[in-house]
């Protein structure tokens, strides 16, 4: 015999999880998780995928987007080259960006632009590192990429920039002149002195002139 229906059944929207044994089980199941801990683990995993703060800066400065990096960002990366641990990370990331394939021509071109900026504004170790990689830079003199459908030669931007950097690296006097010019231009906006200044034993040296680590750490290279 079928039981008579409840005299005054509650509307479905007023039912609680406790009216459904299965729902009670699911509720207890989810309550067993530490939601905050899960969020922290997810954020940590995402951070590892995105890389360090400096890796993210370089990725943004050399992105495949159709616009260039801001001067402020370039200055921040250049200043960080005076810290030994960050210098190694910066150069490693920069060479990886420069070594991308033809369809990533914007990344390669922006990587070369970043390298050019670091040669003129960063630690002098950048100059020596770039010279150690001159074969890699020179190989880009033959870089090729033509836009499918339009026939536009985007490789010309990379070829021209790589030639310019190779010429710069072959001329010590020009490197010194470019670094001194960059220092004076920065000093106009930061109020720092325009003199050469020694390195004071810090990381960077004073072989090619321009900014030294003393200039950066005393505030002469800051701002932006």
Overview of this protein structure:
There is one protein chain. This protein is an all-alpha fold and 224 residues long. 59% of the residues lie in helices and 0% in strands. The chain has eleven helices and no strands. The chain has helices at 21-31, 35-50, 53-61, 71-80, 84-98, 105-121, 124-132, 134-139, 155-169, 172-190, 213-217. Helix 4 crosses helix 6 (105-121) and helix 6 (105-121) crosses helix 7.
SS-based class = mainly alpha
What is the CA–CA distance across the termini?
85 Å
Q: What percentage of residues falls in helices of 4 or more residues?
A: 55-70%
Order of helices and strands: HHHHHHHHHHH
- The gross shape turns out to be globular
- Can you summarize the main beta sheet? none
Find the count of extended strands (DSSP E, 2+ residues): 0
The low-confidence runs, each spanning 5 or more residues with pLDDT under 50, are 43-49, 193-202, 220-224
Concise structural overview:
The chain is 59% helix and 0% strand. With 224 residues, the protein is mainly α. α3 (53-61) packs parallel to α5 (84-98).
């Amino acid at each position: 015999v079928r039981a008579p229906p409840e005299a005054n059944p509650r509307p479905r929207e007023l039912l609680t999880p406790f009216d459904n044994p299965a729902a009670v089980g699911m509720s207890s199941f989810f309550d067993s998780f530490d939601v905050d801990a899960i969020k922290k683990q997810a954020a940590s995993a995402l951070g590892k995928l995105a890389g360090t703060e400096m890796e993210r800066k370089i990725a943004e400065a050399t992105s495949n987007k159709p616009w260039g990096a801001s001067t402020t960002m370039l200055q921040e990366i250049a200043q960080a080259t005076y810290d030994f641990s960050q210098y190694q990370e910066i150069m490693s990331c920069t060479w990886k960006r420069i070594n991308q394939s033809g369809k990533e021509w914007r990344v390669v071109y922006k990587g070369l632009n970043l390298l050019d900026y670091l040669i003129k504004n960063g630690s002098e170790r950048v100059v020596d590192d770039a010279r150690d990689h001159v074969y890699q830079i020179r190989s880009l003199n033959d870089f090729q990429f033509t836009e499918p459908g339009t026939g536009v030669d985007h490789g010309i931007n990379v070829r021209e920039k790589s030639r310019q950097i190779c010429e710069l690296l072959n001329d010590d006097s020009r490197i010194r002149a470019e670094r001194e010019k960059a220092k004076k231009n920065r000093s106009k906006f930061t109020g720092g002195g325009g003199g050469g200044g020694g390195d004071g034993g810090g990381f960077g040296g004073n072989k090619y002139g321009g900014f030294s680590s003393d200039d950066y750490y005393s505030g002469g290279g800051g701002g932006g």
